[in-house]
Write a structure and sequence with these properties.
Layout: H1 8-27, H2 30-36, H3 41-48, H4 51-77, H5 86-106, H6 108-117, H7 120-145, H8 153-167, H9 169-172, H10 177-198
Helix pairs in contact: 1-2, 1-4, 1-6, 3-4, 4-5, 4-6, 4-7, 5-10, 7-8
Length: 203
């Protein structure tokens, strides 16, 4: 079996990312990608099986790592000494969102593909994973802070869906990082006020 050339895998990914960003998934050409990567289409098929496999190889690692980061932020919150302090929760949430925002801008092209070019199934799977994690955490937090206040899970899911759709508008609108920070700060203030109003959250 012939030995694979070093660096070809990375060249294909780089060329593919540019092609997908330029033309979208449907119109992207494997021939163009192969030419730009100085390889053959058969080399692409050998490594990635097909165009979908190549696309997934670009977006999936970034999406998976983002979900992992988000999960760790949620889990570590409960290990903090002052998790039941409302002001501390707001500060912790702000710092976590900044960390996630920075990650997006370190991989902005990949998030453009994931959120704007991926099929609805891929995008929905990513979004719903985040929404489910946040909904579970929100209900657990409210149960600790206001055990007598019962919150409808469906309503919380809808609220969190709206938040994440708003959060990722920074990608759809191709905001620069500074503008995104300002936007997320205002978005967070809006939702914090909403939580306090809806749940009478005078913790």
């Amino acid at each position: 079996m012939p030995k694979r050339k070093e660096g070809v895998y990375e060249k294909i990914l780089d060329a593919a990312k540019k092609e997908f960003l330029s033309k979208g998934f449907r119109d992207a050409s494997l021939r163009v990608i192969a030419r730009e990567a100085d390889t053959s289409t058969s080399s692409i098929y050998t490594r990635f099986k097909d165009k979908q496999g190549l696309f997934d190889a670009i977006i999936q690692p970034v999406g998976d790592e983002y979900v992992e980061m988000f999960t760790k932020i949620q889990e570590q919150f409960w290990q903090m000494e002052y998790y039941d302090d409302y002001d501390y929760m707001l500060e912790y949430s702000e710092n976590g969102q900044k960390m996630l925002l920075d990650y997006i801008y370190e991989h902005f092209d990949e998030f453009q593909l994931l959120l704007c070019q991926a099929d609805e199934t891929q995008k929905d799977r990513f979004m719903n994973t985040l929404i489910d994690i946040e909904t579970k955490g929100s209900l657990e937090y409210l149960d600790v802070m206001q055990p007598k206040q019962r919150v409808d899970e469906e309503f919380m899911h809808i609220v969190n869906t709206a938040f994440f759709n708003g959060f990722f508008e920074i990608v759809h609108h191709k905001m620069d990082r500074e503008k995104a920070y300002q936007y997320i700060t205002r978005l967070r203030a809006f939702y914090n006020a909403g939580y306090a109003t809806v749940y009478d959250a005078e913790f």
